[in-house]
Known about the structure:
One of its GO terms (biological process) is fatty acid metabolic process. Keywords: ATP-binding, Fatty acid metabolism, Ligase, Lipid metabolism, Nucleotide-binding, Phosphopantetheine, Phosphoprotein. Pfam families: AMP-binding, AMP-binding_C, Beta-prop_ACSF4. Belongs to the ATP-dependent AMP-binding enzyme family. By secondary structure, the protein is α+β, with helices and mostly antiparallel strands. It contains 25 helices and 65 strands. A six-stranded antiparallel sheet has the order 33-32-35-36-37-38, with no helix packed on it. The chain has a five-stranded antiparallel sheet with strand order 1-21-22-25-26. A five-stranded mixed sheet has the order 5-4-6-8-7, with helices on both faces. Strand 32 (772-776) and strand 33 (780-784) form a beta hairpin. Helix 1 crosses helix 10 and helix 5 crosses helix 6. The chain is globular, with a radius of gyration of 34 Å. The N and C termini lie far apart (82 Å). The relative contact order is 0.06. Mean pLDDT is 78; it is low at 1-21, 31-79, 234-273, 736-767 and 786-859.
Amino acid sequence: MAQGSDGASAACGHPKGATAAGQWERAIPASRQSEAPPRPRWGGAGGPREVPRAGIPRSTGSHRSRRARPGPSRVETGGAEDAVAMMLQELVARAAGLHSARAAVCFDECSGKPPAFYTYGTVLELALELTAFLQKHCDHQGTWGIGLYCYPGINLPSWILGILQVPAAYSPIDPDAPPTISTYFMKKSNLQYILVENDKVNKFQMSHAGCFSHNSSAIEHIGLTLFQMNSSNIDFSSEVDNMKSKCEPSKGVVNSQPGYTVCPDQTEIKSSEAGYMDAGQKGTLAYVLHTSGTTGIPKIVRVPHKCIVPNIQHLKSIFEITQDDVLFLASPLTFDPSVVELFIALTSGASILVVPNTIKMMPVELSAALFHRHHVTVLQATPTLFRQFGAHIIKSRVLSANTSLRVLALGGEAFPVLSLLKSWKHKENKTSIFNLYGITEVSSWATCYKIPEEVFSADFRTDFPIPLGSPLLGTKLEVRDANGSAVLEGEGQIFIGGEERICFLDDEITVPLGTMRETGDFVRVKNAKLFFLGRKDSQIKRHGKRFSIEYVQQVAEDLCQVEACAVTWYQQEKLILFVLPKDDFEERETLKELQKHLPAYAVPDEIVVIKALPLTSHGKVDISELNKIYQNHLNSRRRDSKLSDAEELWERLLYLWKSVLGLPCDYTGISKNAVFLYSGGDSLKALRFYEEIEMLVGKALPGLLEVILSHSIEEVYRHILKVLFPDEEQLMNPDNAVKRKLRGNSGEEFLGKYIKLTSERDLEIASGLIPFIALNRGNHFFSMNFTKSSMQSENAVQIGVEPLQQPSFLPSKTSDVMKSHEQGSELENRILTLENKANKNDHSSVQQIHAECNNSSVAEVALCVRWKSNTRKCVDASPLVIIPAKEEVSVYVGSHSHAMQAIDLELGEIKWEKTLGDRIESSACVSKCGNFIVVGCYDGLVYVLQSRDGEIHWTFATEDTVKSSAVVDPSSGLVYIGSHDQHVYALDIYKKVCIWKLNCEAGAVFSSPCLSSFPHHLYVATLGGLFLAINPVMGSKIWKSNLGKPLFSSPHCNENYVCVGCVDGNLYCYTHSGEKVWQFSTNGPVFSSPCLSSLTEQEIFFGSHDCFIYCCNMEGNLLWKFEATSSVYGTPFVFQSDDLNNKILLAAVSTDGKVWILNAKSGTAEGVDKLPGEVFSSPVVWGTKLVVGCRNDYVYCLDLYIAGKNNS
Length: 1208
């Protein structure tokens, strides 16, 4: 077997073992072909299971001292030739015999708990138990494999070895993969048995209902449950049998002439004389995977031991692996480099480090685990995955002067440009860096090249090309042109194979020895070296010239302003460069630099700046996601559309009005006096209407949004005309422009099956309209009825500035009074600004507008009790804060004492108290008109109380307790609420009727429904684990998802996604169409509801019973987490205040009574106080006043202020 030095030196020159021109090969020694020695049984590897402890036991020797030894310090466990002839599990057993007491695997949750580890002895002991179990319970006659449905964990090596020892091939199945893909894979692979991780059983059964039957013989302490495919679903067996009978000798050969293996330096050899490898032979296969399917239907790839073992053995030699090494399991199990990572470690007596999948997406935490706690010495990754660390972490930890990393092997994508690599690598760094190349169809790697140390010297040229390197053991490479002829110099497609480097694709049963596989990758041959050019499908023809988009990416990566990038050929029309920028990035300058280094036909059409490169599950750039990003980018642009005249403007304006409000195209009932907010509009729809108009006219329209929110459609039209046609002497009257008769009534008809608002209804409500803003938990924001008429001077509004007020526009009662019409109008405009800047959702979060804060010093926030109100029993409900335009701000909250209180926020005085029929845990909401408060009760009633005095307006009876909090549709005024009777209800509180009710079929509705305006969906979560989207008009189900565990958390949505927490410890994120985008895992149940705020735009905040408050982004990646002193049940609240140095802050509570004020951007604590009781309520902040309920029977209002300032 070739030594490690061969791999390095041969890569720099003509490959050692190369054949005649056009062919590169590293042969397995002849004795490898002889009969393998008897395979030893596993034995003598038992021992007690270890108590988890921190870190992995390691020798005191460093990787540098190892490198300085005269000869390689590999662990030689027998003849290399014998080793190549063995199976994976036999190689592990042999290593375990020498190192039974050493740590084989370490699992670090990265949660502050000590890592768990198993020795080789324990790994083999557990594996043998699993093997015995499978041999007893599985009918393993003939060819078969066993599926493994799990996440990586401490037991993973034992599970894989247990399957291999049966003997059977292991087939990893990703629990997060779309069920359609995994079902196809399992059936196409003819998997009759699936081992499912115990805590994934519910998920597996829901995803593959009816396909598999449960085998009750689970191995509890090993953590697996066995499932068997139902006989009715085994529909690929006959196809495999048919394929076996029909299989021709040439099956799987991709040469230009069927039935022959074409070797440029040899005569043609008929495949019938060459012999075959048979997938049906017992013990042949090691594992079964599928390709990613990015270019079509995923291909099934069955990998024999004889194909992968030479890879493992040769790379161990090249990387000089010893028992002192720690390798990281970076690749997902469904990506074949994971096999290399696992078995390079486990066949050498080294350790493999495993972390949860979520940690792999957190650069700071991952780098700390790898290089601070566990001192990883060997890292294999895709270049894109490696870049996820970011330049700072790579320089300071990964490739620093004192890093633990000996070997960095990058593969699976084009190798990074040398200049980028040099910028990452500290001049004192000694890490050996390798370029790996291979394809899944000939698993796993085909070539390896060690980057010479001299290329990193300062004076070495940065345009040095990185070759693919030498073929690995048993591997043969061929380069062919389009006609199938060998390429000696120049460009061609690379083919990979070898005498026994063979895998079985899809339905192949036998494959001729020496089969070569087409890769779809193009290379340049120069001086017998191979240089990667790009994928066959990345070759594009533009402006008459053909080139690879990878070439554009390499040039762009070489620019100093670019951190990372990717290129797509969007719809075969536009070349788009996506850039993850550095701080000094300027688009124009970057384009100029590209023009200097690229021919004109290769310069990108457009540069799109992104925050992160989207990745596939295998750690490669996700091109389909990039195309979606660009499509969204296009959609958000203004369309350059010129209007011919004012008449056309009016027609287009009416069309947009109907489109945004969801009215039929032939609807003719739009009055020129119609006001958007009274016609079914809201802040989200107003913003959309505004954006559509700007796109229509092709220019910015200052002040338009305020006009839309408070004026008629005629005034909107005139405002646009003033901007478009400023020189026209007389603005056109819309009456003259209308081509169809307009109905002049002030009411709007909504044509849903169950809802029709008449002008009488509008007049009835309007007679008692109360302009207000309402806030409740999770930054749910609701604003209604602000019109200019409500701000006239004769009805002057009392406005003042509180001593610790946040924004200047907040209405409250103080001694200073502004009574002028102008000041009233200013208030209106500012409140409307508050509304339109909010998150684009009906129940939006407050976006607060401030003057610039000049005080940039870091200051601590202090909290003190302003007032407390005794409710006589626990307060678990969260407060509702209502800010009317003309009255004092009020807090509404219920208690276990049956009491519902309305409290003056400023003074803490009880304005009224109403005793209901039972305890109140439901949080109140306010009606569309502002005259009523709606709250659920344990007696099964939904109470509608008058907001001014608490008198009962109406009660509606459900059939069980109502803990759910209601939500109001600002368009229709309907109230939606859930009950423990498993129904959700739509109530018309004005007509006092139930419009519809829906049986959710899966448990009580504990949490609050969530209403989205676009699309118009109502989201409901149940204690049976069902998450539903409902049509709010019809009461019909749109889609549902069964999460399998109770949902106490209330959903919260923005314009793109809806999120909900689950007691399984996950926060789930869905699109509005019901597709699960991601799930974020914590270490405890999530009862907290997610908080989304436009103050932070892309962040989601929530708490968990693992005592952490989490902040993640819209991609599901952790931004920060803060450890509280107990579980976090309540929902956080985001706010900002001039009087608190204008910081964006987060209020959160833990169940031990602690009230935390955190920096929303960093997660650092700014202030804390403790209430004298447990807290399950959620805080609400208005100005600098925080209101929250406590289980000591009180509702508290806390003043927030900067420590040291006078808090009078």
